[in-house]
TrEMBL record:
One of its GO terms (molecular function) is glycosyltransferase activity. It comes from Skermanella stibiiresistens SB22. Pfam families: Glyco_tranf_2_4 (PF13704). Its main location: membrane. GO terms for cellular component: cytoplasm; membrane. The lineage of its organism: Bacteria, Pseudomonadati, Pseudomonadota, Alphaproteobacteria, Rhodospirillales. Keywords: Membrane, Transmembrane, Transmembrane helix. It comes from the Bacteria. InterPro entries: Nucleotide-diphossugar_trans (IPR029044). It is a single-pass membrane protein. Signal peptide: none annotated. This is Glycosyl transferase family 2. Coiled coil: none annotated.
Length: 336
């Protein structure tokens, strides 16, 4: 990430840890730069983004960022019957950066890692619990904050109303982990899976307070265990801000593209389950100055700016089509 060395050196200091972030995207054009700038600003050193079947020309924006050396963009072809996200993660796992990374995390474009310790950088979290090999960081679900329409305004500033922490929707977690070669399946939506023979004993999983978690979080003694038990959840050191709904118009786009793993989901049921606006959470806002500086640097490139504006235009046109039932909308299939 040489483009950002001068920008981050004063705040991050000399730290040679390679911290990888992997994401799958489909039709996320308006939100790419904010998400990317934020995560670069908190210390992810390498970002891999996989796309498939987009209609908003966001892959062209990502291609330009790839050319500039900011990210690695992988265009993913999804065979019939395959799950788009799992196909993308397999491709990402094969890249050289997977073998060089010291730490890795998988996040979606609507998820922002919000670190409460130190200066809010990934290395601050790692240093807070130096013997941890995996941080299981729970969601905090954010609702629409009363916004019905999509906007080019920043997500983190626009959506500040969230669920109460104890709501069951926050039991899901995402994982920041090391010992990457200890797993057969390194990149998965919520956590790495299936430790190699003899490697499980090396693993020390902690929650968002840095407290040790039981071995069943990683020893595969429970099938598909992707949620924390209520008494094992903490958001003390960090949380994942999950802007699951954004606005209602954004949610129409999300529903039209489908889910990257689950076949079919009910728009209204999910909207009611995840549109949580119970209390205000602005803990991410003080960390956004660095992100804005990174985003400005990205937009200094005329081609990035042009392609970003093109994504905004096409996304808006897609929303308009979805809102007009008499206009045919080509099914977008499954999310990438």
């Amino acid at each position: 990430m040489s483009l950002f060395n001068g920008l981050s050196a004063d705040n991050q200091g000399a730290d040679d840890r390679v911290i990888l972030l992997v994401c799958t995207m489909r039709n996320e054009g308006p939100y790419i730069l904010e998400w990317l700038a934020y995560h670069l600003s908190i210390g992810f050193t390498d970002v891999v983004i996989c796309t498939n079947d987009c209609i908003d020309e966001s892959p062209l924006l990502l291609d330009r960022l790839h050319e500039m050396g900011v990210i690695t963009h992988v265009r993913s072809e999804v065979p019939p019957g395959e799950k788009p996200q799992l196909v993308a993660y397999r491709k990402a796992q094969e890249l050289d950066i997977g073998g060089r990374a010291d730490w890795a995390m998988v996040l979606d474009t609507d998820e922002f890692l919000n670190i409460h310790v130190g200066c809010g950088r990934v290395t601050d979290l790692l240093d807070a619990v130096p013997d941890a090999t995996a941080f299981l960081l729970n969601w905090r679900i954010f609702g629409d904050s009363g916004h019905a329409g999509w906007s080019r305004e920043p997500v983190c500033e626009r959506f500040t109303r969230a669920s109460v922490l104890q709501d069951a929707v926050n039991l899901s977690f995402k994982t920041l982990f090391t010992r990457i070669d200890a797993y057969w399946c390194k990149l998965m939506p919520h956590q790495p899976r299936y430790p190699r023979d003899g490697r499980a004993a090396e693993l020390r999983y902690v929650n968002g307070a840095g407290s040790p978690l039981p071995a069943y979080f990683h020893d595969e003694s429970r099938d598909d265990f992707l949620q924390s038990e209520p008494d094992l959840v903490s958001w003390e050191l960090a949380q994942v801000n999950h802007y699951n709904t954004r606005s209602r118009e954004d949610y129409l786009v999300k529903h039209a593209r489908g889910n990257g793993i689950v076949d079919g989901w009910d728009l209204d049921w999910n909207w009611n389950a995840f549109n949580k606006n119970d209390e205000t959470d602005t803990t991410i806002l003080p960390k956004l100055a660095r992100a804005r500086a990174v985003m400005a640097k990205l937009l200094d490139d005329p081609e990035v700016r042009r392609r970003h504006e093109r994504c905004l235009h096409l996304y808006g046109a897609h929303v308009t089509a979805l809102l007009e039932p008499r206009r045919p909308v080509v099914p977008a299939g499954a999310e990438g």
